Amino acid sequence: MCGILAVIGKDVEAAKISSLSKKMSHRGPDESGLKITEKGHVLSHERLSIVDLTTGIQPIQGTSSAWMVHNGEIYNHMELRNNELKDHSFRTTGDSEVIVHMYEKYGNDFVDKLDGVFSFVIIDGDDFIVGRDPIGVKPLYYGTDETGAMWFASEMKALAESCIEFSAFPPGHFYTPQSGFVRYYTPEWFDSDKAIEPADLAKLRESLIDATRKRLMADVPLGVLLSGGLDSSLTSSIAARLIEGSGQKLHSFSIGLDAEAPDLIAARKVADFLGTEHHEIHFTVEQGIEILSQLVWHLETYDVTSIRASTPMYFLSKAIAEKGIKVVLSGEGSDEIFGGYLYFKNAPSAGEFQKETIRRVQRLATADCLRADKSTMAHGLEARVPFLDKAFLKTAMEIVPEEKMPVTYDGVEKFILRKAFDTPERPFLPDEVLWRQKEQFSDGVGYNWIDELIDYASKQVTDVQMETAALKYPINTPATKEAYFYRELFSKHFPQDSAAKTVKRWVPKWQKDLDPSGRANETHVAPGMKKEMIKV
């Protein structure tokens, strides 16, 4: 993974671009590259080397005049090399170069042929094309400066000071100066009425295994984020099986306020079951509060749930990177696909349930994908998300919603996924983890984290400030003192209205208490309370 910056316009100062690109050096601590094209456009790249450690330096030149920068991974790059691009000569052995060659062969009609996560810019003379992956796993922003030059960057901080207007680049789209934005990713499951496939548990299971297998592609050590919840535990279990017998040791990582945090207890059981090299990281509420301003600078959001959950992930990523690991698997996307958040229990109908899963998946770029990318890449760590594989999404999202909705929620959600991996002949997970209650990450690290964070933030904001919040912040006016406090931190780093408009707030649906914590839902079962483990 990397940080990219491209400026397409005349009289661009290379030194300035290089300086702005360095604001993203945390995304690519291994090396930097910069290219001024013959037409005077600039491409800059901050590299985190994962695949092809020696020759994959960017920007990358195509066969002749085209140049490219790319952030992400193309999992089908060898298939493309051996088939569509078998007549092409390559300068590197990495996955990124296939993008510019696909452009040379197909023009602009190639982006949907890429299987992976990406944001890229290709410049060919004065022509250019920019693209972002289907769900927005990788971040990308765009804007224009006072000269009319167009800017594209992995993070907003690289263009906010130079652009008069800027915004988030929409996922699943590409852009050219001739066509404008074009949505290339239009799967049938975008239409809720197309969810008509009966559940095939074996197909669902094998599809997630295939998605995880793709994401083991790396020339560096690999680990797993293991919260002890269903999603990360499944990806960890699958990864452990896939590398079985290879001699490679799988490292798993968990974080909590102390050893008794709900996530740490569950993660310990999974790690013991899988035989991973397990690492537990602890942090204090005081440490979390201390880094909030720096965290908001990295995240580029003021969304309450993103900040709550990103704080432990930020500390965990730092500890993982310090151990020399550059790639981890993570479980983002599952709750959106399968209606895993506890508020889904209140869906008024199967149709509304399906529409909400679609809405949540389509907005992942502003929520969990943003959090997972930016809190890990703050320390040069790449997070890979098997649940957001295109083929797996097709399999899961086209299942009739009646079969995805659980019979009862009594603290247990995502029944269909649990049933798919409930294989007694060779269990993927212990039963108490496979059927564990949903804990949102910011809750699972220890309930005191959110409680004390709310208390601290509330003390930083006065009643008068809340009364006049709409005057100071007319865009996404904060509704709580905690939200106001985060907005203040955000505005110090990004005072522009354009910056404020890039943020989408995560708010639960169909429940009275709109606090994003899972504990705000009435079906949440507190620790120490007895409940039956339900298997259907």
UniProtKB/TrEMBL annotation:
Pathway: Amino-acid biosynthesis. This is asparagine synthase (glutamine-hydrolyzing). Gene3D superfamilies: Glutamine Phosphoribosylpyrophosphate, subunit 1, domain 1, HUPs. PANTHER family: ASPARAGINE SYNTHETASE, ASPARAGINE SYNTHETASE [GLUTAMINE-HYDROLYZING]. It catalyses: L-aspartate + L-glutamine + ATP + H2O = L-asparagine + L-glutamate + AMP + diphosphate + H(+). PROSITE patterns: GATASE_TYPE_2 (PS51278). It comes from Christiangramia sediminicola. Belongs to the asparagine synthetase family.
